[in-house]
Specification:
Elements lengths: L1 H7 L1 H9 L2 H11 L28 H28 L4 E10 L3 E4 L4 E6 L6 E2 L4 E5 L2 H64 L5 H61 L2 E3 L4 E4 L8 E2 L4 E6 L5 E7 L11 E6 L2 E13 L25 E7 L2 H6 L7 E7 L5
Antiparallel strand pairs: 1-10, 1-14, 2-9, 3-5, 3-8, 4-7, 5-6, 7-9, 10-13, 11-12, 11-14, 12-13
Helix pairs in contact: 1-2, 5-6
Length: about 400
């Protein structure tokens, strides 16, 4: 108490009256230590002597509060993570080995020739049927004209043969009429020969008459044979003409096919868009000569974009078509997209590589395989055109969803 009174005067005396015995002892022990004054603020008389130890500053309470707050924060974060894992995260199957895909079509030349005009540029949207590239069509127009003339000539040939077929029918009728007349003459001659022979037996006719009757009979019989042969010849001629007509018609069909092909080749001189999309990788310029199959450009259908995610084989067991998928595109991280699992690839990606693995020979090291999974995006997102093939995405499949 004397020390507090000496240090703080009457104020120290009033303080001691309000403190307990233990507090008075603690304060007495603390106040019995020498006070520390910064060296810069001391006078020469106040500088500490050699061996003098200054008491440390009191900051233990603040450290304890900060440590307690840190422990509470860690405990709260761990609790939140545990709750999130139990209620949501453990039902998610995710991968960052996923990319935006589209059924890109490579447009190539179907016919050879010089490029006369290019109607598009890189990154230009086009509609189905729009003209993209024009190839010189002069030679192809000449081919069409030549094929058309051949067809016309063959049509004339068919008409001529048809006229001959029509003219052959009266000739056959004429031969039949001649056969009927020859048969009538032969019947009359046979009767005359028989009558002359009977008269010769009764000596009422001369041998000369009988010989004449025999000759008439033989001549008329030959006429009948000739008439029948004429009918056969006319019928055969008709059959030949009909066969020629059939052959000519088939030849015309071949020529018509050649004409259709020439017209088709002519149409291929205009390269048009097969579907709606965006032009990319344009590799053609006016004046360039292209061969059949030369790649001209690529057409990307952005409105049919989808996501291809390569999941590990150990993740496939929980995946089913129709499950909800959260898609995060690296380029648009602030625009979350919801999709659906659409289908699974029939084999792992390694099976479709240029050199598939052969594990039946040599040493074996097991490597986790990945299977491509196709994920469908909403149509309105695909039509917006923000998903460009090749973009990296992160997908999370909600396996708790049945559909």
């Amino acid at each position: 108490m004397s020390i507090l009174t000496e240090r703080f005067g009457h104020g120290g005396q009033r303080m001691t009256e309000q403190l307990t015995k233990e507090e008075i002892e603690r304060l007495t022990a603390e106040t019995s230590r020498p006070l520390t004054v910064p060296a810069s603020a001391r006078t020469e008389e106040e500088q500490p002597k050699t061996g003098e130890v200054l008491p440390p500053k009191k900051n233990g309470g603040r450290k304890r509060v900060m440590l307690l707050l840190m422990l509470l924060a860690i405990a709260g974060g761990a609790g939140y993570k545990s709750y999130d894992w139990y209620t949501r995260t453990r039902f998610l199957v995710s991968t960052d080995d996923a990319y935006v895909r589209a059924d890109t079509a490579g447009i190539a030349a179907k016919v050879a020739g010089y490029i006369t005009s290019v109607s598009i540029s890189d990154n230009q949207p086009v509609k189905a049927g729009d003209l993209l590239v024009k190839i010189d069509d002069g030679d192809y127009k000449l081919s069409v004209d030549a094929a058309r003339r051949k067809v016309e000539t063959q049509n004339s040939t068919i008409e001529r043969i048809a006229a001959q077929v029509a003219a052959q029918a009266p000739l056959i009728e004429q031969a039949r009429a001649q056969l009927a007349a020859a048969e009538a003459d032969a019947l009359r001659a046979a009767s005359e020969f028989e009558r002359a022979t009977n008269l010769l037996r009764t000596f009422n006719a001369t041998p000369q008459r009988v010989e004449q009757a025999r000759a008439d009979r033989d001549r008329t019989n030959a006429a009948v044979t000739s008439a029948r042969a004429a009918i056969s010849g006319a019928s055969a001629t008709l059959a030949v003409l009909q066969a020629q007509k059939t052959e000519a018609e088939r030849t015309r069909a071949e020529l018509q096919t050649a004409l259709d092909r020439a017209e088709r080749d002519l149409s291929f001189t205009e390269v048009r868009a097969a579907f709606d999309g965006v032009i990319g990788n344009k590799a053609v310029q006016p004046g360039q000569y292209v061969q059949t199959g030369t790649r001209l450009l690529a057409l990307v259908p952005l409105d049919s974009a989808y996501v291809e995610a390569n999941f590990k084989e150990t993740q496939l067991g929980a995946l089913k078509p129709g499950q909800r998928v959260s898609i995060s595109v690296d380029a648009y991280s602030d625009k979350p997209i919801q999709g659906r699992v659409e289908s699974f690839a029939p084999a792992s990606g390694s099976q479709f590589s240029l050199l598939p693995p052969e594990n039946a020979t040599g040493n074996f090291t097991k490597i986790v395989q990945r299977v491509p999974v196709r994920i469908k995006v909403p149509p309105e997102v695909a039509r917006a055109g923000i998903l460009r093939p090749g973009l990296s995405v992160v997908v999370e499949v909600h396996t708790r969803d049945d559909k």
